[in-house]
Structure formats: structure tokens, C-alpha cells
Amino acid sequence: MRLVPCLLLALSSVQAQYFSEGWTPGQVIPTETVDAETITSASAATPAARWNWQEFSSKHLDLGKIVTEGPIASALSGIGINAVEQLELARKRAAERGWDERIPLLTDSNYELLVKNETFGSPEEAEKRTWFVVVTVGKQDTMSKLVDEAFDKAYQLALDAGDAEHVKWARVDYLAETEITTEWMLWKPPTLIIIKDNGNTLRFYQPGQIVLDPAMLHKFVVIDGWKETEPWSGPWAPGGSRQPYLHTYAVLSRRVYNVISALPRWAILLITGAIGSFIINFFHKDDGKKKPSTVRD
């Protein structure tokens, strides 16, 4: 019985390594060396065939194929979204931003279908499902580039080890998505997010709150190190009293953004110029009262 408290104490000390006291400009990123586990074969003469998680996931868990083929593609098509075209645009955008193209992009269009309405084969699978998401602006921002590199390397470690089958990795392009980032009240990328319960439980981590080491990020999701932090709560959080108002505002923001982004540059300049001129004239107009005339003697 004495062994149980010791094991719990050891586990808590390991989980605590994933959080950082803070990062300041110029400070070296803390790193830790994680010893790779060695597996000894029972028979060196006739080694047994090993199951390759990376090969299996590339063939059967390709999110690109899942989105562009089968019922999900049909559902997207039913609401006017060409899944193949959107996937190609996402991959092109990922290549331009210097991202790993194997990590899918969560967008305003597919978030509800992939996360909110995700279905599971059993309650145990639903309970284990974890989305590990990075919200970033790409390599043009120094901190975003740093977080992206650590995130992509952690993803590769998870593929190689095959120990995070319950975790889905994804990325959000902060500059292209409006609705989901507004619903999360996320105004400052880069940010790492743990999503549970079909998007109803969210945990946010800024770069200064977590160690940006690939091995540590990998272990962070493998052993559920995120359980040490409390999820987002309050009236604006999922299930909160004001969340419906935030959702409405997020949808309107997305529609306004879509209209503005579809306009040519000259039209945007014309509209903003007209608005600016109206505001200036409004604050400098006469109040309608006659000015007293000055009489000279």
C-alpha cells in the first residue's frame, strides 16, 4: 500500500515539468533530454514483425481523405463547401507559412463537423479523445515560428512512438479564421489549446506558460499533463450564460470578414476613405446656431 502514494508523487513530479514559470525575450528555451525506451527482442534470431503506427496512421487516419471522401465530404457539399478545393487551399497556405502539411487545419467551415459533431464507437473512445491545437500566424512572426517548430516536432515524435492514438493534432491559421477564434476570445497568437468533450472543455496555454520542447509537448499529451490546469470557465466559456451572445457575435464577425475579404483593394480604400471623411465632417460640422456678428465702431 505504501507503493501507491510513491507512484502518485512520482507522476505528479513528472507532470509538473511541462509548465514554465515564464519566458522573457532573450532567454534560452529550457530543454530536457528524454531517454528513448529500448525494447529487447525475445529472439534475436527470428525477430517478430512489429506493427508500425506511422505506416498505419498514414494509410487509415489521413484526415485529408476523411474530409474529402465519404459522409463528411457529402455533408460539407450539402452546405455548399467543396472539401477538395478547401483542402488544397489549406495545404497551399500551410506550405506558404512553413507548416507541416500533415497536420490538418481547423477552420470556421470544418470545426463544427470535425470537433463539435465528432462521433465515437464507444463512450471510452469519446472520453479519451483529445485535440491538441496550435493557433498561429506562421513563420513571419518569431514566436509563432518557434511554437510551430516545437509543435511539428512533437507531432513527429507521437507518430514515431505510436503512443498517442487518442490525440488529434491540428492547427488554426489565426489570420484566416474569425469565428472559432472569436468564440474562444483568443486575441493573441500563438496559443496552444487542449480541446475535450467535443469542444465544450478548453484549456489555453501561452508560450510563457509551457515548456516549448518537442519531447515535453509529446509527453504532455501522452500522459494527460493538461489535467493539472483548470479548464476555461465563466459566463463566456462553453456552457456559460453569455456564450450564446458570443457565438452570435462570432458568426456575424465571420460574415463581415468574408464580405470584406471578397472586395477588391480599391473598393476597400474607397469605403474606408468615405467613412473617414464622414466621421471628420460629423465632428467638425456647425452646431446650427448663428454666430454673433462682431460690430466695429
Automatic annotation (TrEMBL):
It is found in: Secreted. The keyword Iron-sulfur does not apply. Keywords: Membrane, Secreted, Signal, Transmembrane, Transmembrane helix. Its main location: secreted. GO terms for cellular component: extracellular region. PROSITE patterns: GNRH. The chain crosses the membrane at residues 263-283. One of its GO terms (molecular function) is hormone activity. The keyword Transmembrane helix applies. Residues 1-16 form the signal peptide. InterPro entries: GnRH (IPR002012). Belongs to the GnRH family. This is Transmembrane protein. The lineage of its organism: Eukaryota, Fungi, Dikarya, Basidiomycota, Agaricomycotina.
